[in-house]
Amino acid sequence: MIKKTREIAIKTLEFDPHDLACEELRHVYRGKNSSKLIVLFSGFVAAGMLAWDINTSYAGVWYVWLLVAHAWHWWLGRLDFLSSNVSIELARINRHVAAAAIAGLGWGALAIALPLLSRPSKAAILIIMLIGVIVALPRLVVFLPIFFAFAAGVYVPLLLATPFLDFETLHMVMVMLVLVGATLWASASEIRKIMIDVLLKQVLSEQASWEDRLTGIGNRRSFDVNFANQWAQACRSKVPLSLMMVDVDLFKKFNDTYGHQAGDECLRQVALALDGCARRAGDSVTRYGGEEFAVVLFHTSLNEAQNISENMLSAVRRLNIRHEQSTHDIVTISMGIATILPSPHNDMQTLVQEADQCLYRAKENGRNRAEWQIVNNVDKA
User: Fold this and answer.
1) Measured between alpha carbons, how far is 48 from 304 in angstroms, rounded to an integer?
2) How far apart (Å, rounded) are the C-alpha atoms in residues 264 and 217?
3) What is the DSSP letter of 310?
4) Which residue in 314, 190, 212 sits closest to 267, CA to CA?
5) Neighbours of 323 (CB within 10 A)
6) What is the CA 378 to chain-centroid distance, rounded?
7) pTM for the whole structure
8) Please, are residues 244 and 285 in contact by the beta-carbon 8 Å criterion?
9) Nearest-10 crossing angle of helices 93-108, 144-161
């Protein structure tokens, strides 16, 4: 069912499976305050039993360990969930899996105390451990490696403790591991199917909202997010970032002369030509608005950006779209290029404003050309 849904999405909607994987991971860390409260309360009850049957120090150490293990798991996940990055690097998943396993060990550590507890306390502790897994089930099962790591953290110590348990306790443990484990697995499979369907629809909807329907490239929202991400990456890497603002020359006159359908087709062809000239990793072409496009070029000096702009100017001219109202007789573009070595103290909008000013100069100087500017870093701290 899930595999089939994924295949349909990939084939018919050009869906990237990585986007779904990232959304699955984000779901694990979406605000689940109820689960936090249950961990606090259940842990407090278990600590009370440990204090009653063993001693307060033992109970206190375990409760602190439980809270620290879960807090680290939540904190680590929220770093990615709240990140401005649209896409989470899958290479970092191992640390999320490790954090889940450690959070599970918070509950699994109770197994060490089982031989020292009274019979009622043993039963209650096993129930509390089961609650810990059940509460985590709807949240973690969407991303199976994390759920399995958490469950292993709970149950592996329990298995290791079985040689030290009396027959009655061992019987309860085996029932919990076999019957409850099978029930949990069946429930997990069903919950995962439902959640994956929901997330898939959500991701596809979000993906569609980032695409300009007319041209098929990214829209203004896509530009805003990508520009912020590339700016932050350029700041960290201390590499130049170039921005191009592109405008189709005399487009209103083109629309008035040939009609809106011809205008739409013109924009589609221009978008395709621009996108074909920006194919490196970190390059992105988006429709900024109307007949204006924006091109973000990561780790690109002004000279490199100038070369790309010449390719774009030529690519649009080669389209040979007739435009009687233009002095060039064909559709052309004007471009403004601004390059900066970003720092955290700079304002991103400065680069946009400089590129806009260069675009204005290109129009004033006859269109069908590019003007450029290196932006000096201004420390605003």
Assistant:
1) 67
2) 14
3) H
4) 212
5) 20
6) 31
7) 0.49
8) no
9) 30
Report in angstroms the alpha-carbon separations of 70 from 147, 148, 180, 327, 347: 14, 16, 23, 68, 37
What pLDDT is stored for residue 316 in this prediction?
Answer: 96
DSSP structure class, residue 376: P
Structure-token pair, residue 212: 């300009």
Identify the burial level of 171 via C-beta atoms within 10 angstroms of its C-beta, where 0-12 means exposed, 13-18 middle and 19 or more buried.
Answer: exposed
Q: CA 300, CA 279: separation in Å to the nearest integer? A: 13
Q: How far apart are CA 256 and CA 279, in angstroms?
A: 33
Phi and psi (nearest 5°) for 31? Answer: -50, 110
CA angle centred on 65, ends 60 and 68, rounded to 5°: 125
| CB of 313 closer than 8 Å to CB of 255 | no
Amino acid, res. 330: I
Residue holding tokens 């404003």? Answer: 353
Task: Return the ∠ at Cα 107 (arms to 153 and 189), rounded to 5°.
Answer: 55
Angle at 345 between CA 344 and CA 348, to 5 degrees: 75
Residue 323 phi/psi, 5-degree rounding, is -145, 95
pLDDT of residue 322: 95
| Pick from 291, 286, 245: nearest CA to 265 | 291
Which residues, in sequence order, are bridge partners of residue 247? 292, 334
> 218 has which bridge partners?
211, 286
Asked whether the predicted pLDDT for residue 262 surpasses 70, the reply is yes
pLDDT digit string (tens) for 64-96? 999 998 888 888 776 665 544 444 455 567 788
> 343 CB contacts (<8 Å, ≥6 apart)?
235, 377, 379
Return d(Cα 207, Cα 245) in angstroms, integer.
24
Domains of the chain, first to last: 2-209 (no CATH), 220-374 (3.30.70.270)
Q: How many residues does the chain have?
A: 381
